[in-house]
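protien #1 (seq + structre)
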Amino acid sequence: MTGNDSVVLRVAGRPVGRYVTRPELPARLSPRPYLHPVTTLAGAAVTELSPADHAHHLGVGVAVPDVEGFNFWGGRTYVRDRGPTELDNHGSQRHSAYQLRDPDGFVEELRWVAAPGELLRERRTVAATGLTDAAWALDFTFSLTNVTSAPLSVGSPATNGRPGAAYGGFFWRARKEETAPDVFTDRAEGESGVHGRPADWIALAGSAWTLVFAGATERTREDPWFVRTAEYPGVGSSLAHADRLPLPPGETVVRRIVTVVADGRLDRSAAAALVRKAVGP
């Protein structure tokens, strides 16, 4: 553990991730807690923070571009019939308290705040678990509750008129390398083959590392994956793919993603075996 502003995750005593609780960021980046750097057990970095191509990409976390019109993703907002537009509509995720802090994980309470005040309250549970001598798993659960007296809904650029851009939810910005990573599922491969489709798991294989993302609940597995490899390496699970996600007052949406972080380039069978080890059959 470190001080109040960050938590260091460890697997068998080895640091594998740093969680920044209260980042000092400009409002335009939709300030929010994030994990960075995240590394393999051998020490290879597998996240990127505020890269030149997308300054609002912050390692690993939860980011949503449209909560009732407020931007919790950062950067420009996609406006129907106008395209990406600079708006003064950014919200922030504010750490409230840790309910639990251990070397291998934590339970955190957060407030999602925008101009009208608090819109959502989140409980976030993060845990790091060793799998093999070359792989570990990051278990990330978030629950978002509408704490207002009015209905809210979650949207994406796709639901606002930009096809193929259904990002928003759990998001992992991987490290950009000279060569774009390979991406595959148990039955498809390549960005065009896996983007925008649900799959039990999806693997991103870089030069000497592999990330395997798995929905760990039935509801999470229903969400299609948002995938980028050519423009930049990133994988997310889409809360609002084709339609806005309604969130009535007092209601809660829960998602759980388990990510295998492995040294080396895994093939399909190795990726599937590690997912079974991390999540179960």
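ok now protien #2
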Amino acid sequence: MLTPERHQLILSLLKEHGVVKLQELIERTNSSESTIRRDLVQLENENKLRRVHGGAAFVHGNQLEPSYIEKTAKNIKEKQAIAKYASELIQDGDSIYLDAGTTTQELIPYLDHKGLTVVTNGVNLIEPILEKGITTYLIGGVLKPSTKALIGSRALSSLNLYRFDKCFLGVNGIDLKYGFTTPDPEEALIKQTAMSLAKETYILADHTKFNEVSFSKISSLKDVTLITDNGLTKSELSSYQEHINIKVVTT
């Protein structure tokens, strides 16, 4: 396979899956490991991808956001492990806020606590929460089709009626300099408000969100506890642990 053809295939796989492992790229292109590594270096230098531990990730514009369906299909095992750990932090009788998102949705099967109350802006979360028999409040607002999240001024005014023991949020980017970010300023404001109304805030994010920056800042790293999987290298994890309380779960 010629180099331009190989590069095109690599970029197509990344666009489709978001993150692709090195071994898969080797197999799909029928190339050696050294060849693929050189390809990834070249494409990263051209700002067409980002090399990550064990593979590569697609580079999005910082205001672009994958659809809810696209995000649901990615890193399922990691999200489930993160969610299970997060559920163990919840106590009977807690009132919690669940952010609209695919990782927070994975929390729902583990919500077997007595006397639990859930508030959410995630339309997709409502049915599985109700199936658990949990007292549930859906805030008002405008529905954002791509993320199935309720946002806007009515969402904010509705959200401010509540107070939470714990708040669980998803993010699109985690960066040492820019903190936690998401593409949409209105969603960022909803997340910030929920944080301010909670005694404790937890960010649920798999390792692919690290070293990513989206358009709108949610908060600095020091403001919350981050729950992630064990997909980072030791050096990457160490650099972040200096700035944020991180709980790492094994997948």
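The first helix runs from residue 3 to 17.
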